[in-house]
Design goal:
Metal Binding Protein, Guanine Nucleotide Exchange Factor, Chain A, 2 helices, 149 residues, 8% helix, mainly beta, three-stranded antiparallel β-sheet
């Protein structure tokens, strides 16, 4: 079920809310935008996600609201620079990224669900996870080994 969730960085300087669905398969709402990216959480083995341990949920821009701390964010871009990776300047936590890609319907955020403040351990455990082989630029396949992600 799509619910409004609140999240923050570790020190609380950055706060946001988003409308996402962390329900297991069979209990999920119709998604705001179609496509597999919005229908699950994702873990990727690319060099960046691997080092940051990003656990992401693609969220349409219209379902994301930065509540506080825009002035406390710093950005990092690499490769083609299409994704704006944001970090809290105070505590260094990586709460979300934002980008725009036609394939994903335009502007979106990837919320780091580990930064959500109102998710129970049981909800985290039940959230569906799709594994991406980003290190080989094959976003449609799981890597051979996923246990470390």
């Amino acid at each position: 079920m799509i619910r409004t969730r609140r999240g923050s960085c570790h020190c609380g300087a950055v706060k946001y809310e988003c409308d996402i669905d962390l329900s297991p398969p069979g209990e999920r709402s119709e998604q705001i935008r179609p496509g597999p990216w919005f229908a699950s959480t994702l873990r990727c083995n690319c060099t960046f996600c691997g080092k940051t341990r990003m656990w992401k949920n693609h969220t349409p821009a219209e379902a994301f609201r930065l509540l506080q701390g825009a002035d406390r964010l710093t950005s990092y871009r690499f490769g083609e620079g299409t994704i704006d990776h944001t970090f809290c300047k105070v505590c260094g936590v990586y709460p979300f990224v934002n980008a725009s890609m036609e394939l994903l319907g335009g502007d979106f955020y990837c919320v780091n669900i580990a930064t959500l403040d109102d998710v129970t351990p049981e909800e985290f455990a039940a959230a569906p996870i799709v594994y991406e082989d980003g290190i080989n630029d094959d976003w449609t396949r799981s890597p051979k080994v996923t246990s470390y992600l």
